[in-house]
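BUG: 3D viewer hangs when loading the predicted structure for this chain

Environment: internal workstation, default settings.
Expected: structure renders.
Actual: progress bar stalls at 90%.

Input used:
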Amino acid sequence: MKFGVTQAFACSYLSEKQEQLLVCMEEDSLLEQQYSTLIQVGFRRSGEQLYRPHCKKCNACESLRIMTASFQPSKSQKRILKRNTDIDIKIVEDERDDYYQLYERYISQKHADGSMYPPSYEQYRNFIHCNWQQPLYIEGRIDSQLVGVAVTDKVAGGLSALYSFFEPELSSRSLGTYFILQQIALCKDRDVPYLYLGYQIDQCSKMNYKNKFYPHQRYQNDKWTLYKQR
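Structure tokens produced before the viewer hung:
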């Protein structure tokens, strides 16, 4: 397969670092075939692009996947599930008209200091949509009002959590964790072993919600390493 390396640019997660990406340069038809293989060696999807970190002096980014068959929610995760029993969850394959409005509010109020601000519909489309991969949408509604969406990809052996966004005014409900739990439940329903959560960066506090789901594995030194609950 053909790969390219980007130029170094300011790291999105560690302010004192520079990052580079290894990007798959193949045609769409081959990307579709190889997506499941590449995600097992630490790649992620963003729009049409498959990439993974390729930093010469840093290995802080570790791909993390939850072992869904043996996952058991913690006490705090059980409380989050109980807190949100009024949310109606549906799995859909076609995007609804109200998704972008919720995404725009979420980015503007929760991530105004990040690289995705200011949001635009073009940026949203380029991030979520893909000609060769149809994502699933796990949507949550209360009395028909959209309160959150988890966008996830079907891959061999599991699901890959692409992005979640939710109503900023409901932050006390811990909807980010709630929608990860919904994706784990979907993996269990489909009898697939892994939910890929993207990159865990221990030095970045914003990323550390991912390491609270046990058991999980991290991709380190070209192999998956098991982490059990302490």
